[in-house]
Amino acid sequence: MIWGGIEMSEEQGSVKSTIAVSITNFLDSGSIVAGASGLTFWTKELGLSSFQVGLLGALSANAFGSAIGALIGGHLSDKFGRKVIYTYDMLVYMLGTAIIAFSINFPMLLAGFLITGIAVGAGVPASWTYISETSGSTDRAKNIGISQFAWSMGPAIIFIAGTILAPIGLLGNRLLFIFLTIVAFIAWRLQSKLEESQVFEEQKQAEKDSGITSHPYKDLFSNMVNIKSLLFLIGVYMFWNLVAGAMGFFMPYVYETVGGLTNMQANLLQAVLWILTALGTYVGFAKFGDRANHRIFYFVGAAMAAASWIVLTYAGMNWTSLWLFVILWGVSAGIGAQAWYALWATELFPTRYRAGSQGVMFFVVRGSAGIWSIIFPTILTSMGFKAAGTFMIALLIVSLVIGTVWTPHTRGKSLEQISKERYGNDQD
Asked: What is the pTM of this model?
């Protein structure tokens, strides 16, 4: 493999490309947290109404913005290649974060949030697909784990930086988005040097040789195997992400309003949580995802997630329960639903609509998160934290049951082998 004009081994190339692509996930989570951490400053500076604040959240990288981007990016990635996303996506992201950093009014701020969200949504399905296609059967989970490690480090770094910059108010939040713009430029430079996925090129060559042009979405929804896979993956990821998405945007608010913590205490708790998530991803999923029994591994992570919310909801929000929650959720998020979804979503579909299927699922998941982001504060305010926490526990248990009962058997198999087992020899 040649990367940046340097010839390297296949394994080295896989690691290099994984790191380059994984920065996309860092920027995804980083933009979500940066947006959430600065909401109070933007509200005060621009005199935003509660509706305008809700609109920012709904159209951000955490919700509808990324949902729209995923639908577009997944389709383009399957039609024109993974490289087309890496050629242009970070340019769109930089435009969005730069607009946010220099916003002087609400329309400008909203446009920045939306553009950033679209770029995030377009990049994530392509990144997971590219990593999976450039990995071997024995290191696919490891490389996905590296990608998830990068995703976890985004909030950890942004929360720490946000805590340090909090004394300078809105300027500090503007600086966070300038930082994300700089990182995106670095990512664009690295990703522009990537070669196209060989698996994708072989698929397109096969289509050219046969004279048969695929219709990704038509093919995707006309096959019952695909429908079952879509429902399974949405079930695993959506119910978990409804909890995780609400936490990403509202958890500091919950700490402060329900637990009586200061803003600094809330941000530090979240920083520790995300550091544990990063460690859980790297030490747990990346190290053992290719070797451990997938059903048992998934169950442990999902059970820890449910247990964390049971503790927080019913033990009272004291420092013992808060730290136990942070430890349980932090580690579980590193080895839990998102990492498994990222792996399984790339394994269970043929090459010709591997990214497009993720785009559809990401659209549903992040779209539902946008709706839940509107509902959750209402439940919290009108029914109280215990009711809101009980809803969270129920969602996590649904994800636990779906992922544990219907765990796919993909460990140690190549993408080609998985496709042949699921679809027969006419699919790749």
From this structure: 0.81
